[in-house]
Amino acid sequence: MVDNRYATALVIACVLSIIATVYLSVAIGTQHWYQYSSPTVRGEANISELRSLYEEFIDGEFDEKTYSDTLFRLNGTVGLWWRCVLVPANAHWYKEPGAKMVLECRGFTLPQQFTPKYKEPGNHNSGEDMVRTYLWRCQFLLPLVSLGLVVLAGLTGFCACLCRSLTPTLGIGVLHMLAGLCTLATVCCYLAGMDLLHRVSMLPDKVDGSLGWSLYLVLISSPLHMMAAALLVWAARSHSQNYYRMTAYRVA
Q: By Cβ atoms counted within 10 A, which residue in 14, 132, 201, 208 is the most buried?
């Protein structure tokens, strides 16, 4: 028989875990982690340059400097698996005032995720930047680890429900705590990686960068997982202590 307090704590923890997992999943699949605001394009020369950058972005070989410069100049957004630019829907580009803008995206393939980063982006002779390379790899691996831990916790909880046992609750809480820490580490790695990128690739004049809503979803997801973990650990320890007291009372 489970005390109402423990049952309430378990229900709230499950709701928090579901919300956090949905937020994290949405963030992983979207590109609005970081976004750039570029000035209005003026002059035929600038239009030709941007068109060339866009064509290289869409059809050219994968290169960090190329896609970074395009993101800077074309109101780009970048996530864990996507990079996008905002361009006019028609072929005349910026010649028509008030032209409809559309988001053109390209995904990062798995081999591209493991591509080394260089001390000077685009210059393969400058030597590999180990810090940026491993920050990039961690930022896309850690959220997958976090989701894996939550799935494992969910399976364990399902089995515990079938067995009508609260014994695994402590372990489930620990798994949620680890998931929250992995999610928080993802944010730290991403922000550190973007800061280092902006140090080696200076932003053009009047181009501003800001955090996107996908990153805020991850920031919300991490404390939700930790709150769920705290409730699960509290329920497990309190129930265990109460069980031992009842057992000692019956023996006495």
A: 132
pTM: 0.85
Q: Are 32 and 212 in contact (CB under 8 A)?
A: yes
Helices in the chain by DSSP H: which ranges? 4-29, 44-59, 64-73, 110-113, 130-163, 169-200, 213-251
The tokens describing 10, both together, are 């378990």
Q: How many domains does the chain have?
A: 1
79's torsion region: left (phi>0), alpha (psi -120 to 50) or beta? beta
Contact 34, 211 (CB under 8 A): yes
CA quadruple 132, 138, 140, 141: dihedral positive or negative? positive
CATH no. for residue 38?
1.20.140.150
Cα–Cα distance between 90 and 223 in angstroms, integer?
44
Report if residue 247 sits inside a domain.
Answer: no
Q: What residues contact residue 188 under an 8 Å CB cut-off, 6+ apart?
A: none
**Domain range holding 138?**
2-239
pLDDT at 41: 65
Residues 6+ apart with CB under 8 A from 186: 138, 139, 142, 143, 146, 218
Mapping DSSP to helix (H, G, I), strand (E, B) and coil, where does residue 219 land? helix
Which pLDDT tens digit goes with each residue over 148-205?
Answer: 999 999 898 888 777 776 678 888 999 999 999 999 999 999 999 999 998 888 888 8
